[in-house]
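[job 0412] stage=fold_complex status=start
inputs:
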Amino acid sequence: MSAKSTSLSSPAQDAATMQDEVLAPSNLVAFAGRMWAVLFLIALIVFFSITAPGFFDLFNFQAVGANMAVLLVLGLGQTFVIISAGIDLSTGFVMGLSSVASAIVMQALTGYPLPVIILLGLMTTLFIGLAAGAVNGVLVAYMRVPPFIATLGTLSIAEGVAYVLSGGPPVSISTRGLGFFGNGFLAYFHPEAGVSFLAMPSGVTGTAVRDVLGFFPLQVVYIVILASFCGWLLGSTRFGRHVYAVGGNPKAASRAGIPLGWTLFKIYVLCAVSASLAGFLYVLRFNGGVANAGDALMLSSVAAIAIGGASMLGGQGRILGTVVGALVIAVIQNGLVILGIDPFWQYVAVGAVIIMAVLVDQAKGRFFP
Amino acid sequence: MTMLAPHSASGAASIPQAPHPEGLTPVLRCRKITKRFGGLVAVDQVDFDVYPGETVALLGDNGAGKSTLIQTVAGVHRPDGGTIELDGKEVDIPSPLQARDLGIETVFQDLALCDNLGAAENIFLGREVPGKAYGCLPGLNNARMRSEAKAVLSELHINIRNLEAPVRTLSGGQRQATAIARAVYWKAKLMIMDEPTAALGVPEQKKVLSLIETLKSRGVPVIIISHNMQDVFEVADRLFIMRRGRAVADLRAADTNANEVVRLMVG
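[job 0412] stage=fold_complex status=done
writing structure:
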């Protein structure tokens, strides 16, 4: 008997089987079901460590972490939306638009001190995120437009505006030093010059730069901060609890006094802001913005969320799951590249994992609640 | 069956009326409640009182107006006429939220639980206890909410093994109990239950009925809307019967029987 039919539909059966059903599944199976994404990630790491020379390496792991930053940040906000039983299709192009807009502002400020450039770039980013989020939020939360349609509209608008602003080609930023914030490390080590923080050891120039080792990529530092923040917000606050309630049963949430519209509004603003921050990370990393920077990433970020155990029907999911899901995708990409397999196979592999995630989720429902 | 003079001239000229306790202020006093939907008069000048600690069953055939009457008290509908008093004070109940703030808790037929959340989370839904997260950040006091939920559930003799397990994994009776526990925890002044046993198996029905007895012993008045005559006679002190929008009888359960009630319901 499936968990679904434990509902009130079959009362007589309920009474009889309820006890068994709650007790039946072994804790081990339940644990494996809950943790399958982690187990799968470990299996992937073991597999590539054996088959792909150079995969099991601290510096490769750091690269995986830095490479997944943009994808993960796109997914962080989307996690809230998916738990609320919605979807935000616009994140990819909101990210692109924010990368283009902030790159334009930062390029226009060439000559100003670096902190000023970064600060104004960040403010532009946040402005784009807040604006796009407010539009999505009003449409979904207050005008009751289905999220799929509302965000499809904003997707197209953001795409159009991004291309209009950029004219098509990437907008690059010529200020030097910006690259450090996108590609730098928290700590550096050179066999002769020793350890330094947030900058190359002084006196290391020319070919000696090649011997410098970087530890803790800043991109990883950013995602640790952002993911921790989102994890706290979703897992430990009143707002987070309301996100689950709205996704689980909006009617019940509203009857319990949770402001439905306002909660949904905040969710969509949060999602768009996280998408715009992903755009800013992109700008820092590549010293420029591109309108379609996030085009392919939107679906990957949803894939990460699905792999992480969130239900597309809402009410279920965790930030940690999204982090694990993003890691699974990033590890697959990295491992296949090292193995020298045609990069297009990544899409096939990720697709297979998504389908697997859904099957595991359904099996979970069948075998234990 | 006692037939007394009605307390007021309501829609029906003279209805059989149970004696009401003297000197007690009714928790709920509805006077001449009228609700129309277009040309249809769903509730026609109905007087309806509920006294402290009593369980009143609201009976009637489909379309008799019992749900509409109760929904004016629960804040779902606003009456077109008449007044509602709570503890002797006239109140306006524009929304379900307002009703809840006034201490009127409704356990809806569809329970209004979030299936993906645990029993404790549901009991505190929308009224979470603030606390600390990771020692320093603002968060929720989950430990306190769990222990309070546990306390109220055990007070009501409800056994739910894991308060964190999503309530969709609970039985119908446990879910019903969770919804009732929520109302009890938040000190409902008046509890309304819409078909509380309709969707349950027999053992679960018994549990919910004994839960209603527990509520009664705690002095919480309960209005139950039910079709199940057996349930009604098991828990109700008083039966309030409606037919085509009007009150047709107000009887003490002890003074009547199922046959008479059915006869009054169908007219």
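[job 0412] summary: The interface with chain B takes residues 3, 6-9, 11-16, 18, 21-22, 232, 235-238, 241-242, 244-245, 247-249, 251-253, 255-258, 314-316, 369 of chain A (CB under 8 Å).
[job 0412] exit 0
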